[in-house]
Amino acid sequence: MLKIAWTEIFAHSLPEGHRFPMAKYDLLPEQLLYEGTITKSNLFAPEPLPEQYVLDTHDATYWQRLSNLQLSPSEIRKTGFPLSEELIQREVVIMNGTLQATLFALEFGIGMNIAGGTHHAFTDRGEGFCLLNDIAIAANYLLKYKGFKKILVVDLDVHQGNGTAQIFQHEPRVFTFSMHCGHNYPFHKEQSDLDVPLEEGTDDKTYLQLLQHHLPRLLDEEQPEFVFFQSGVDVLATDKLGKLGMSIAGCKERDRTVLELCHRHNLPVTVSMGGGYSKQIAHIIEAHANTFRLAQHIFF
């Protein structure tokens, strides 16, 4: 059964003025339920992540300062959100959503989070609407508690997964692969194990050719036991922050490529939603919904 992390805390805890396009966290499950792609039995509401799993990835001093609302004004500005207890609560719930989705992926082949993909969070700081790194937390859980020897992070958000790259820069058991717009945030890039910077305006054909060149080769060479897929839809031409030129159909083919390869290789995969900032919320919802539709079709 496809299991998807979702709870109303994702949208309702955000400060006024930061809720668009964050409304997608409510609208997406409503759309998937309405069209019959999922039923309520597919959704689960995660509890906050236990602190020990935060500390397996993040610096203890940073976590203490963050959780006690003691970040400096400069640090808060870099996160993009006003700091509050509700925001921290939201973040630790999202973290556990991805971790629990990972455990469901071990059981069913795939698990998903209607949130997450917080790839700009570093070991010791937050950036770009990311306070903690859900992909890194779940990957470290598999390494420490489940004995995994090789994990592949496939980050296809339009922005480089700089936090994830930094966290795993000295960890050979995690291979970080990021395809992103080269001239976009973050302006200082970290070094992933494989970075594929894209030109502004990159279209469907070029994007998909590059993905189909790199990803099958990585699966063969790295032989991962698990995949984390950051499926941001800010690659769309309509995205306000993206700078690429992809269509909704092209984004869907991107997701199909990743999910079909994982299924064909019998690789469990956890999918985190990532970014999406198109002016029309309908474009965001349709592109994200395609990821969930494909997961249901391919794996079940």
Question: Main sheet, how many strands, which sense, barrel?
Answer: 8 strands, parallel
Overall, the morphology is globular
What Rg, in angstroms, do the CA atoms define? 17 Å
Please tally the β strands and state the result: 8
Beta-strand content estimate = 5-15%
Structural write-up:
Keywords: Hydrolase. The protein has 300 residues and is an alpha/beta fold. It is built from 11 helices and 8 strands. It has helices at 9-12, 24-35, 51-55, 60-67, 73-79, 85-108, 134-145, 162-167, 204-222, 248-264, 281-299; strands spanning 3-5, 43-44, 110-113, 151-155, 174-181, 194-198, 226-230, 269-272. Strands 2-1-3-8-7-4-5-6 form an 8-stranded parallel β-sheet, with helices on both faces. Helix 8 links the parallel strand 4 and strand 5 (174-181). The longest helix has 24 residues, at 85-108. The N and C termini lie close together (7 Å). The mean pLDDT is 95.
